[in-house]
Specification:
- This protein is mostly helical.
- It folds into three domains: 4-49, no CATH class; 55-115, no CATH class; 122-163, no CATH class.
- The protein has nine helices and two strands; from the N terminus they run ααααββααααα.
- α8 (144-151) packs across α9.
- The longest helix has 12 residues, at 117-128.
Length: 164
């Protein structure tokens, strides 16, 4: 912050404590530290494992995906199809771990295919809406609204299922 000319002109005014504070350097980037107590500058201290909030392998799903996005280089095209530019990071093994080799950069379509999202959503719908159960409840004189509340869907969905 102070340059050499300032020190030469104002030797008496500058306290020894002020000089010591300015001579301490960050061990990583060799910049002057502003505060006497800190060991590293703000830029170097907040890098990954040096941060006080670093959880390592115990980090959550979202935090690991953010870390992967920062550290895994993004290719020009999807790693699966090689046609579209990648937009999402997909986990290969299905286990959420901090390993760059366990993730791929994929386009949205390839990510859906890889995770079988379409099949999973179809299975959820068929499990929720068992038509035999709906017909059975209708025989007991229950309304579409009552059946819908019981199954966790709207009355229109129940009506459409029975219409088919």
């Amino acid at each position: 912050m102070y340059d050499k000319r300032y020190y030469k002109m104002n030797k008496e005014r500058i306290s020894i404590r002020d000089k010591k504070k300015r001579t301490k350097l960050c061990p990583d980037c060799k910049t002057n530290l502003i505060y006497k107590k800190s060991q590293r500058c703000g830029k170097c201290c907040n890098k990954s494992s040096r941060n006080y909030a670093w959880k390592g392998d115990n980090a959550g799903y979202k935090a690991i995906h953010i870390w992967i996005r920062k550290n895994k280089p993004k290719p020009e095209f999807c790693e699966e199809c090689g046609i579209k530019p990648p937009t999402e990071v997909a986990n290969i093994s299905g286990k959420c771990k901090r390993d760059i080799k366990d993730y791929k950069w994929l386009c949205h379509k390839c990510h859906i295919v890889m995770d079988n999202i379409a099949e999973k959503s179809r299975l959820k719908q068929t499990i929720k809406l068992n038509i035999k159960k709906i017909k059975e409840l209708r025989l007991h004189n229950k309304t579409y609204e009552e059946i819908g509340k019981e199954m966790g869907v709207s009355r229109n969905t129940i009506w459409r299922r029975l219409k088919k």
